[in-house]
Amino acid sequence: MLDNKKQMAVVFMLLSAVAVSLLTVGCGRKSEAAADRMENVEAKAMLQGIWADEISESIVFKIEGDTIFYPDRTSRPARFVIIGDTLVMGEAQVKYPIVKHTAHLFSFKNPNGDVVRLVKSSAPNDTIAFVHDSPEPMTVSPQKLKTDTVVVYGGERYHCYIAVNPTTYKVVRTSYNNDGVKVENVYYDNIIHVSVYHGTRQLYSRDFNKQMYSRLVPETFLRRAVLGHMEFGKVDARGFHFNSTICIPDGDSCYLLDTQITFDGEMSMELIEY
Predict the structure, then answer these.
(1) DSSP H/E element including 30
(2) Is residue 98 within 8 Å of residue 115, measured between CB atoms?
(3) Lowest CB count within 10 Å: 37, 48, 59, 109, which one?
């Protein structure tokens, strides 16, 4: 009976040791995982300053605190963190694996897989590129902000008036600079006023914004686009046709639409091409 008790005690001790070992391993793994999610404060401190391309010596960005600033006046600053050996930037959490990081050299992979090599700048004049506090939004407008067109149809004279009015509504366009770093540029959207007169009688008058075309243009595109311009196209039995464009700023993606106004002052829209 005593031998059985001794054997049970030994088994209990062995099981306890195994349990402790497994618990220790589990805690160690949790600690390692938590460490991987913690911000690398030391690496962030080493990044403070102005960084330039190693080959061209052109300024790429300045890091101050937890924010990346760009030298041009149209790109918005971006927040960043360094988690482990990865730079994570912006609300979209774009990740840039760090290849090498010293006090004067910072190299990382951009989303295309290319290695970007930057060196810390010590030139006093480089600070001039960052004197602005916030980005200046750009306007996207045609060369002529106002057009006045007289057309004749059925022996009658009609007067079409168009005025492009920049607003303070901001549109953000996301792109990548020459180093493959994500940047956000800010643009002002437009409101466009259209009036049609038959002699002194007003047939139609209205302000147009891009949301009025939401039935024809996807919302995901509208959020990133501006109402670029409207111009008189033609007049026929259906009425007056105005060519409207909704485009991504400084890009090739556009929707071309036909905004139609009848002789009775009714308005309709059709998609011409994308």
Answers:
(1) helix 2-37
(2) no
(3) 37
Tell me the two tokens of residue 3. Answer: 């031998």
Looking at per-residue pLDDT, the higher value among 109 and 177 belongs to 109
Across residues 174-202, what is the average pLDDT?
Answer: 89
pLDDT value of position 178: 79
* Model confidence band, residue 2 (pLDDT cutoffs 50, 70, 90): very low
CA distance 50 to 37: 27
Read off the DSSP letter of residue 1. Answer: -
Whole-model pTM: value is 0.65
Q: In what order do the strands lie in the sheet with 239-247?
A: 226-236, 239-247, 254-261, 267-273
Q: Quote the CA–CA distance of 119 and 55 in Å, as a whole number.
A: 9
Q: Which region among 38-52, 99-113, 129-143 has the lowest average model confidence (pLDDT)? A: 129-143
CB atoms within 10 A of CB 252: 6
Q: Which of 43, 152, 135 is nearest to 87 (CA)?
A: 43
Looking up tokens 């930057």 gives 118
End-to-end alpha-carbon separation of the chain, Å?
Answer: 90
Query: Using an 8 Å Cβ cutoff, are 74 and 67 in contact?
Result: no
Which of 264, 151, 245, 244 minimizes the C-alpha distance to 204? 264
